[in-house]
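Need a sequence for this fold. Nothing fancy.
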């Protein structure tokens, strides 16, 4: 019994429940039954049950036990490859949780093979999102560089010494803040060391 948690399964769940998969409640029986249903539906082409018919079938203890056992086994295998991430609830962060279906569609529109994307397992998704973000940054930085080189003969180079000065991207601003914070901390540490050295010198020369 195949129970692979692919992108197609996740998208079917989101379509069925009407919520982002990141909001799934594993303590909610309806959410779990809907996930099991989507797993069975997407991994077994001959299955033609509706959700209502499937949940009724789960009332059979033997069938239910076999299905949940297969799901638990599949999950234990896949969890080996799932990178540990810090979970942040949308209510705490103030952000609206994104839908997996939108992310997969975006990756497909930017060149990822549709068949591969739909059959990709959930644990592999972060790899392709990271690759997309890296590629997107490189393209934006390349476009900015060519824009900078195009306008450079017409502006004061002292006011725009680099392409970054033309328009810093959000991730660059974060990097600059991190670098500034690091520099301030290093300067503070050096100053503390200087004062400590001065106190030791005074104590040594004047005995107090």
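Here you go.
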């Amino acid at each position: 019994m195949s129970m692979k948690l692919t992108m197609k399964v996740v998208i079917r769940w989101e379509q069925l429940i009407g919520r982002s998969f990141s909001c799934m409640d594993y303590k909610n029986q309806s959410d779990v039954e809907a996930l099991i249903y989507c797993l069975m539906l997407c991994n077994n082409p001959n299955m033609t049950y509706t959700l209502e018919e499937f949940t009724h079938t789960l009332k059979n203890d033997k069938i239910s036990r076999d299905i949940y056992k297969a799901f638990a086994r599949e999950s234990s295998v896949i969890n080996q490859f799932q990178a540990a991430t810090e979970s942040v609830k949308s209510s705490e962060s103030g952000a609206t949780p994104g839908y997996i279906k939108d992310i997969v569609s975006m990756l497909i529109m930017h060149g990822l093979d549709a068949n591969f994307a739909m059959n990709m397992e959930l644990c592999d998704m972060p790899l392709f999102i990271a690759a997309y973000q890296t590629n997107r940054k490189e393209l934006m930085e390349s476009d900015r560089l060519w824009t900078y080189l195009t306008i450079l003969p017409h502006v004061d180079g002292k006011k725009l010494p680099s392409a970054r000065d033309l328009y810093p991207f959000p991730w660059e601003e974060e990097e600059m803040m991190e670098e500034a914070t690091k520099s301030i901390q290093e300067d503070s540490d050096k100053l503390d060391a200087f004062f400590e050295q001065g106190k030791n010198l005074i104590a040594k020369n004047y005995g107090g």
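For context: The chain has ten helices and no strands.
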